[in-house]
Write a structure and sequence with these properties.
This protein is mostly helical. Helices cover about 35% and strands about 5% of the residues.
């Protein structure tokens, strides 16, 4: 460390490490007593070889819980055997019936020239169509 700020941080770390070493040395007698007690307890525990009992089995679910199906759905996940499903084979051009009320209604056509000039017949003018010319106003 060359700069004063480096020396300060180094001294703090060194003092912390030094306190840890001193504490380790002071606790030497206590650690020796703990080692002696642990060795005695291990010798006592090692003598009897009793079998470890198995935990009790998980009880089977009630018949109504399975709903008489080989699967159940938990949190939008299917658990068990997936039922076999076959898709509908359609021929080319076949499709299902459209939903009611979903048919798009297009905007009525209108003549832009009549709209710009403020004409009242913009919905019936022949200028409504792509190739049509306005019959009331000329550009």
């Amino acid at each position: 460390p060359k700069l004063p700020c480096h020396i300060r941080t180094y001294i703090r770390q060194w003092m912390k490490n030094q306190r840890s070493k001193d504490l380790f040395e002071q606790s030497k007698s206590g650690r020796e007593k703990l080692d002696e007690l642990n060795s005695i307890e291990q010798a006592e525990d090692a003598a009897p070889n009793q079998p470890i009992p198995l935990p009790p089995a998980i009880p089977q679910p009630q018949p109504g819980a399975m709903h008489n199906e080989p699967y159940t759905i938990v949190a939008n996940s299917l658990i068990g055997e997936l039922p076999e499903s076959r898709g509908v084979k359609r021929k080319r051009g076949d499709r299902g019936k459209d939903k009611e009320g979903t048919k798009r209604k297009p905007k009525p056509r209108r003549c832009l020239t009549c709209l710009q000039q403020g004409g009242q017949y913009f919905t019936t003018c022949k200028g409504r169509w792509p190739n049509g010319k306005c019959q009331y106003y000329s550009k």
